[in-house]
Amino acid sequence: MSKKEMEVVKGLDVQRYMGRWYEIASFPSFFQPKNGVNTRATYTLNDDGTIHVLNETWSDGKRDSIEGTAYKADPKSDEAKLKVKFYVPPFLPIIPVTGDYWVLFIGEDYQYALIGQPSRKYLWILCRQTHIDDETYNQLVQKAIDEGYDVSKLKKTPQADPPPESTDAPADTKGIWWLKSIFGK
Question: How many Cα atoms within 13 Å fall on the side-chain side of residue 149?
């Protein structure tokens, strides 16, 4: 199968994109706990035009989070190709890890989105609500297939309704989760 260049959203309204997004499904990745639930991302515009990223997930009753910064890969382009930089592990900010964050599709009302990146190793279906209707979900999955993704790897993320508050759970402050994920333990 030939890997054509992925189509990316053009003219993303960054202001409208800000706020909280719930992870409906994703390709499992080494930097998220295997048993993570209620995974979500909150985006806030910084004064300098970059985006503050807060990723949260809950595992074994504990809240894990990591913060980073997103910015346009090419400031002159109107394509929604962002870079996200995290410092790993979060309690020892020495190793910046930069990844690609490409908005492949956005609902016209900015209620759901499909996020990928050029290697096609990562894929996220995000929604403003904790749940998405089947028809919309299937449309996003089909879009991913059209862009060359192997959607058999998609795993749905359990989301509680209502979602937990960030302050409800004890935080995993030791960052053990990060070390485990990096070393695959």
Answer: 27
- Measuring CA to CA, which residue among 26, 53, 31 is closest to residue 41? 53
Do 33 and 172 touch, CB atoms closer than 8 A? no
Q: Which two tokens stand for residue 174?
A: 């030791």
CB 98 within 8 A of CB 83: yes
Answer yes or no: are the C-beta atoms of 33 and 158 closer than 8 Å.
no
pLDDT along the chain (185 residues), means of 10: 80 96 90 84 96 93 90 95 83 78 96 96 96 97 97 96 79 48 42
Return the residue matching tokens 């894929």: 123
Which CATH fold would you assign to the domain 14-180?
Lipocalin (2.40.128)
